[in-house]
Amino acid sequence: MRTIDQLLSEAPAFSGMSSDQLELIAGCGLNRVFEDGEYVMREGEPADVFYVLRSGRVALEVYMPGRGALTIETLDHGELLGWSWLVPPYRVAFDAKAIGTVHAIAFDGACLRGKSDQDTELGYELMKRIVPVLVERLQATRVQLLDVYGGPGPV
Amino acid sequence: MRVLERKSLSPLLEALRRRGYEVIGPTVRDGAISYEPLSSADQLPVGVTDEQEGGTYRLAERDDGAVFGFNNGANSWKNHLFPPELSLWKGRRDEDGEIRFTEQEHRGGPYAFVGVRSCDLAAISIQDRVFIGDAYVNGDYESRRRDAFIVAVNCAEAGNTCFCASMDTGPRAGDGFDLALTELLDGGHRFLVEVGSERGEEVLAEVGSSPAEPRDVAAADAVSEDCASQMGRELETDGIKELLYRNVEHPRWDEVSERCLSCGNCTLVCPTCFCHSIDDATDLAGTESERVRRWDSCFGLEHSYVHGGSVRQSGKARYRQWMTHKLATWIDQFGSSGCVGCGRCITWCPVAIDITEEAAVIRATDRIEAVGINADD
Amino acid sequence: MTAAGTDSAVLEPTTPVAYRVAGKRKEMGDTWTLELEPVGDQRLPGFLPGQFSMLYAFGSGEVPISVSAIAGGSGELTHTVRAVGAATGAICDARPGDQLGVRGPFGSVWPLDAAEGGDVVVVAGGIGLAPLRPAIEQLIAERDRYRAVTVLCGARSPDEMLYPSELQDWREAGIAVETTVDSATGDWEGRVGLVTKLIPLAPFQGERATAFVCGPEIMMRFVAAELRGRGIPPGRIHVSLERNMQCAVGHCGHCQLAHLFVCRDGPVFALDRVEPLLGVREL
User: Fold this and answer.
1) Complex ipTM, two decimals?
2) C contact set with A (CB within 8 A)
3) Pairing with C53, which of A86, B115, C146, C185 sits 20 to 30 Å away (CA)?
């Protein structure tokens, strides 16, 4: 059976981290399973946890009265779910729903915040791995905002 | 080489008409020299000259009786080879919804073009490359061009906006003509004639000419040399393609666009500009339709329209497109510059934008390190 | 004097040939697929994947539309058209039996032969899948000539995913097909996100892969960057461009992109020919 730090090192965001650091992060992690339709996170709840997905798909949803739940992004194997634990007020921004059975490693963000404050080298290393994910998603979101496939409508 | 007397000009036009050519030549129309169908040599602009400058064109009298003592007017031979408006086909939809297209007959010609300047001769060969020198042949252009008889006239004086010497297109016609005349005024009004084709030879034989004396040949050479030394403008062409490619973001484009009215005059008078739109018109009942080809201009906003908007929204982008096409991308497209140095775009620009000046400014402030466009072929 | 002309020169086709709408299928809200067949004896030469025709709706105008399927050489034509203007609107409104005018075939092709022996990745955005469909069908028909073949499709929403049943057929025919949408409601269980996100997952090796990309120009720029990141050389990333096309043979001048005539030199270009040009605004 593989340990959490082994599993963690397979996630692209954490690949290449030193084993000491992985061990430290893994210390805050535990395996979780979510059934189809189960909510991994709910908008507005305290953001103390983030996940690295091992299998299955998670849909980020926003609920719009009159239109229902709109999926704005899905996350798959190896991807990072949740970053609200990094920034105050540490509240979840979107609903995250399991599509099919989801296996994930859950990390105690609050615990990691504490460890990072004490060990800034670890904190910096963690930031270097999370920021590119944020940037990539921000860029993708900007392109999605252009609604390029929608076109300008009849002319 | 032969010599044609001044009085033989009329028989020359007559001989061309007898052979079935519609004779097109210079005449005064609306206060400018224009190339129009001529029924008589009397219509030629005898004793007329033109004064040209950026944004300025005036006719004036000259007292030496010269027949070709001017440079160029606003229009060019492209008005006849590539008419401003041409019906391509007519369509009909009957009650059953059957549609039928009737191709328009290719009319026009055969033409005899009399008075083609060297720059315009170069312009004709450039448009040949565009319309009949590629995989697709434009049938209408081909039919007008195929049998055209060309009587070139070598310029005796260069205009203030002329720069054919820079573009290596003049002032003396090298080839591409059936007959080439150099008008000689001193020592008897006459023309030195160079024969460029067999049919040129035949036509000349019908008119009657005498062998050229060495003094005639020398006089014609002197005329061309004088003319070459009088060029009103100059354009440095060395490396101009690369110059403009790497200066695609040069601040000068913004500056010139503040003056440019995007009126498109330069593209209309340019003897090589070939852009045209394909317009359809349908009657109100929706049963009759006609497709018309019309000159278009890259200065128009619609020129680059794709659904949603135009690619070249700003005047800057449109001026840059025109000038970069003319002097640079044309070379990649057709193997030569698209500019022949006739100076029409300078003369007829209402705000006197000068392509030679614009090119010179960019050269003087060349941003060698700039990342520009890079044509691979 | 004689004018220059190449031996293989053909007359510029200025007059459309009458075609009849033989079949019509609604793909999504404003997008239809039309099957056309020649009305009389006159028929156009065969089209190749990537090429386009000029489609004329009587009284409404003419537009360039890529061929979206290749028939068996009997003159039939298939086009998928989105109603965005007067001409495309009239074409989409045509009913079976109605007649349209067609000129073509025009333009360059998806270089399927050059991709032989390697991996092929096809990336489509929105209606950009239509010009790629004949290429995908040929890849499937000649599946043995290629290694891994992957089709990646992005769309605005699940309802606006073009050819959903074909996507399933293609999967069954032995190629990988992945889809993603910009946003989704209801019971969509597929991916939501930009099409670029599919690229890291696709099973190809950059050094032996060829890519065919068609979609909005912005999407193609991002996709191209991602494909290069996975090691496909820009000379083997092919994109299909859209510009104002009127004559379709490089004579009218409207489709110029610097030194290129998109109608004649394109619409399919290797990225290394056009990438620097696409980066210049308003070129």
Assistant:
1) 0.93
2) 82-85, 89, 125-127, 154-156, 160, 180, 182-186, 188-194, 196-197, 201, 215-216, 218-219, 222
3) C146
